[in-house]
Amino acid sequence: MPLTSMPTPPPAGAAAVALILAAGQGTRMRSRLPKVLHPVCGRPMLAYVVDAATAATGGKPWVVVSPAVEAAVREAVGPLVCLAVQPEQLGTGDALRVGLAQVAPAVEEVVVASGDAPLITPATLERLLAARASADAAMALATMEPDDPGGYGRVVRDDEGPLRIVEEKDAAAGELALGEVVGGAYAFDAAWLRTALERLGASPATGEVYLTGLVALARADGRAVVAVEVEDDLELAGINDRVQLATVEADLRWRILETHMLAGVTMQDPTTVYVEAGVQLARDVVLAPNVILRGTTAVGEGSVIGAGSQLIDSRVGAGCRVWASVLESSEVEDGATVGPFAHLRPGASVGKGAEVGNFAELKQARLGARSKQHHMSYLGDTTTGEGVNVGAGTITANYDGRRKHRTTIGDGAFLGVDTMLVAPVTVGAAARTGAGAVVTRDVPPGKLAVGVPARIREPRPRPEDPETT
Question: 3-236: what fold?
Fold first, then answer.
């Protein structure tokens, strides 16, 4: 299905519609990944612009893409936007023309943003719309005065405001010395814009059609042009290479950390903590140095994530401790402890008050409430009941070379050191295995399995067990 026919476009009667320009090739990124899809704190940079545009207008934005990135953008943000394809990359003015062609004639205002400026805020886009409407101007543009204006179009003014924008490639020496630059965000009178785009010419230096040429056209038409100054240079900063990507990510990462700290999260050394945009942290969470939280990870109230831990798309309950461990698509319930040096692989689940210790690994496995898996053990494709002791060196042999098989361990079972459970197998409630047992058949509840291969025996009374008759 062509992206231009994606469902649920902005309402035809919407007062304002957002257009996001994302058709650039991004050659300076030197990457096979489209520039606007490079991640910033765990999300494609384009996603942040989409969020801002949606919040400012109340509807889905149109994103202008090139054929080369069409499929990738659809996969990344397709449900959140409507897409328009620019067949040839003839410049930002041509991209704007392609996008505007998709906008319903009844729409009165168009706000434009760049897909490679992820720090743009809804407030700035709203300011642009308000400033344009208040002055009944043809357009409003966001400007800034960065320390280094290199790469940006310079704003040439007269007494009435912006007179024209000169792209750096076209600028004379005196124009290059100007400090005010345009930042890639605009608001337009949609009716005027439709007629102006038809008159927009190409740059004599590059042959591209720049939307910045609309400033001079508006002034020639006797229409006002207003500038909205943005004090934070990084908000309007476009990302063109990996150095700029790192600069913007560092700024956004600090904003994320600051938000969490102000909401009641303790970070012992925030300069070493990495928290992506989708992470949720409850109050009184403590993050030690060198913690990395990615994806949709969520951490409950009062939990401590210790030094060297990395959590990816995982959920940790309240009052937990995770230390120097890796959790991937896993769940840790309230009061449980994990680590140090444990690995919870996708599908792992640790019950309330359970303990996972040194060099223990779980994969597609459930460790029941109050169960303990302390030392150098592996549970794969396993369901473990409550109050189970998993002895050091215990292994579930879940793969026979062709298929995976499950192991079930009942409540209160005790697995001796170096137990090997050859799946499929069930260890019943309160059953035991001896040290070094290789269990190849089910162990009934309350029985003992010993030897290689394991044989079923009546358990010997332990000192703490009641006497049997």
Answer: Spore Coat Polysaccharide Biosynthesis Protein SpsA; Chain A (3.90.550)
